Amino acid sequence: MAASIGQKLSSVASRTNSLLKKTVKLTEHTPCACPYYSTAAKRLEHEPRIACRTSETDPRKHTGDHVGLYYTVPEEEMAVIKTGMHPWHLRMMKSFNESCLMVRKPALELKGYLDKLNLKHPVPRFLLYGRRGSGKTLTLHHTMQCCHKDGWIIVHAPWAGQWVRGWYKEVAVSTYKPDRYDLPADSAEWLTHFRAQNLGKLSELKTTSEYIWTKREKAEVGTSFEEIINFGLSRLKFSSDCVGVLLKELRVQAETQGLKVLVVVDSVNAFYVQWNQQNALKNMEKKQLRPGEISLVHNFKKMLSPTWSHGVAICAVSEEANDEDKREDFTPIYLLGQEGFEALDPFIPIYVPDYTEKEALSNINYYIDRNWIQNDYGKTDEGKRELMFVSNRNPFNLAKICAQL
Amino acid sequence: MAGISPWAVKTVHKGTVSSRRLFVIFAHKRFLEFRAQNVVRLSSAPDGNDRLHIAPVTQNKPTAKAVTISKAMRAYMEQARAYDDKMKSEVADFEIGKRHLANIMGEDPDSFTQEDVDRAIEYLLPSGLYDKKARPVMKDPYEIFPKKKAAQFGLDGRPYHWMYFTILPNYYSALYEITWKLEALKDLEDQMRAENRQDEMEGQSFNTASSEWVSLQALKTKMVENIKEKEYKHFVTLMERLASHPLSAREKDFIMEWRVLLQSEELQSAVPEVEVEEGGRMCATASGTRKSSNAIVKVYMPGSGKFNINGKDLTYFSQNLYRETLLLPLVVSGLLGKVDAEVDVELGGPTGQAGAIRLGLSRALLAFVEEDVKEKMRLTGLLTKDPRKRERKKPGQQGARRKFTWKKR
């Protein structure tokens, strides 16, 4: 009996050995001759060049071959996405001394849809969903840069949660409708962001109807969008109304002027679910406000309804926009709730997955290239495997872990 | 030599003719004879140790003198009789009680074992008491009542054991035995060297790698004597001397009586069996526990590093710390990314669950690694169960250790 078990074990051991001796190399991208854009310290000659970049900086030309590779966003286009970017990303880019984004599959999928779109139809809605930190926001940025190159007008809400929470915020009763509430500071901020993203395109656009602010102040027919924005920035009281005016004019003129309008809303579920008791916005009577009562949210919701054409709405749902006890799942139907799902339905869901092994390796290699990973063990195959295991190949998690190495 | 009586040895010894060893030989022989002549009393006791219970069956030869019984002996005999009577009745009670219990449980009284008794007691008298020692129990009386040392001297007041006056007869006779064996080995060595057979001695020394000497506590229990630290050291030194002799493997059985196996040796049996599934994929199953969590881990080889924990992947653990816990066995065994694991884990919190999975994973991985890696894993502490548990709250205190705030008034 003992002998047979011994025999069995030894045979297993030999089989195991044969498997163990097979050293499976991690499959990386093959090196390509890509230019070195950075002004950072020059690479040493003897260092092997790790393939993690592509020289194709035009996001419109990215194909499936580029998936997992980093491309450099030129300075002038960086200005477009910069204002809407999370400070965390900006800090990372500053540390790396260059602004690079990874080409991901969902972005390509989205671009494929946009290329084949018939703009005459009512606005189609795309909804990105995925785990926390899987790259939904950067996918949006990738797409925005793409559309910016194509000359689209971009209407971008970087983080919808900002408009429904905060106990320190100034909340004013709307000058347009008394049962609605304005957020003057947020509206002004958004106007600046809108102006920065569409620099040079707004002066040609004129209003098509008259808007009366007060008895003495009004915007005549034919006022340029620039002027509306300037007015909103100088008279904060009307900044929310200015946002409403701009959005309405865009909806009306998109078809007549032949515009292409890209509406991007990050963490759209903030529009449809109630934020928690402590930090939800409150009016002067300390009454908690529903998202729909806030004029900014109200106006943006109109942009998401299929009542106009020559536009596209791309949204992302995120767990962070929901209350802490409503973050069990990351699917749109769970995060949006009944109301949100009905409002956005029908939409095209796009899943943003965590990194594949190739993408994760490319990311780690990029960090090594940027000296973000300095630990020698982190540069070995085993170290990379451990990083991938602990982070579970989640991009944000990987970045957090690598920050300590 | 055989014709010389033990008493003659003494004479020889007192003369200067014979060596001391001669005395040793005879004394040892006498010791063995003594052991053979005496039978073991209380042999029904489960762990009856012959060192403890040595007592003669009436061996006193009829003498012309009137038998005088010393006072101490008389007192002892009374005590012993009382003890014996008590134990006899207890044993009878226990046997009857066991039969009753078997009848209550509707089982055959003749084949009712101690395990059945334990099960029956737990069923009939369920107890929620925290301390297991405080719960009702029914066991052989010899296990429950403290043992009593049998009389060490006969009716005439003469001690049975020839080392009685050393106070620690068992201890010193053990030392004696060791010395004797060592001397014998030395003789043998001399003889082999004289016959030029040194090459036969290769590999004849005892391998101490997988075991260690019994602890002082264990030695005390084994000898039933109050052995001190100093005496224990003396014992170990002597044993070391025996074990390091080039021919010590000949006395392996004797040496192993005084040694306990290390964990690694026990582990050999703990390696899970490898099953081969359809498609030639091997898998091994093991379980692990930590705190109050239990995990059953099934490891597949070859794999690609996929984890399935209660139907989720590694996101089952939200914190990196817990994933790192799982990482360690894979890194130490060098199987990271080469195996898949299917985990069923229940109870407890994330720390306990991660620890339980780690233990189960390490045990399951044993099936796929080499001997040296197994040893490495053991040394890393992967195969050791973390015995810590939540400590109970005590009455009159705020928690397990914390006291209520003390207020003067």
Automatic annotation (TrEMBL), chain A:
GO biological process: apoptotic process
GO cellular component, one term: mitochondrial small ribosomal subunit
InterPro entries linked: P-loop_NTPase, Ribosomal_mS29, Ribosomal_mS29_met
Chief site of localization: mitochondrion
UniProt source species: Elysia chlorotica (Eastern emerald elysia)
Protein name in the entry: Small ribosomal subunit protein mS29
Coiled-coil segments: none
A GO MF term: structural constituent of ribosome
TrEMBL record, chain B:
Record's keyword terms, sorted: Ribonucleoprotein, Ribosomal protein
Domain of life: Eukaryota
Cellular component aspect of the GO annotation: mitochondrial small ribosomal subunit
GO annotation (BP), single: translation
Region (Disordered): 383-409
Any GO molecular function: RNA binding
Transmembrane segments: none
Stretches with biased composition (Basic residues): 390-409
SUPFAM superfamilies in the record: Ribosomal protein S5 domain 2-like
InterPro entries referenced in this protein's UniProt entry, alphabetically: Ribosomal_Su5_D2-typ_SF (IPR020568), Ribosomal_uS9 (IPR000754), Ribsml_uS5_D2-typ_fold_subgr (IPR014721)
Pfam family, one: Ribosomal_S9
Family according to the record: Belongs to the universal ribosomal protein uS9 family.
Name assigned to this protein: 28S ribosomal protein S9, mitochondrial
Organism: Elysia chlorotica
